[in-house]
Amino acid sequence: MRYQLYYWPSIQGRGEYVRLALEDAGAGYDDVARGKGGTGAMMKMMEGHKDTPPFAPPFLKAGQLVIGQTANILLYLGARHGLAPKAEAGKLWLHELQLTITDFVVEVHDTHHPLGPSLYYEDQKVPAKKRTAEFWTSRVPKYLGYFEGLVKANGGAFVTGRRLTYVDLSLFQIFEGLRYAFPKRMQAFEKKVPRLIALRDRVAERPNIKAYLASERRIPFNEDGIFRRYKALDL
Fold first, then answer.
1. What pTM was estimated for this model as a whole?
2. Residue 184: is its pLDDT beyond 80?
3. Measured between alpha carbons, how far is residue 63 from residues 2, 29, 66, 79, 81 in Å?
């Protein structure tokens, strides 16, 4: 099966977690909105899928299925491409972890848009600075400390043990994004999560991921996505 991934063409955003899973699995897919007329095709899919319309990108077309929400897409792909445990309990546990990552991604976005996405960053600089300080004091240690503890407890190379899952790929993206957006803060923080740094390095060296990162398919980080670099927030 060749998949069709629908997501905005100029940002990594939430679609990148799906791309990483597809790339690592070596699955054939079309990044639809990046092709000619692709954004229009994406909007048409959202408006024309009357029975179960996706709320927003990303969504994935797999045969006759149209699956929305990043964690939901990964739940589907993980079971079909060896990126999740086979037992139901393991699948649900992994899905729970991905939902936790989803919560964290929202908090990352709120560092630069604490008053909401309808306002520009320039309209909320003071609240953003305050939100970012609390993010690094409390939220980053809470979330990443939790995953660091899981790696330690499971005694393996990855979060759930010896085998890589889509959660490991998502954590890789978290670290890449934080390094881009907050290079100074991350340099100081990384020594607190050595197991996650080692996990990030293992993911980066996987052949399919390494090839993807070096390709034009990997959209560069920019100030339109979730992870944005503002010097005033990286103190």
1. 0.96
2. yes
3. 8, 12, 8, 16, 16
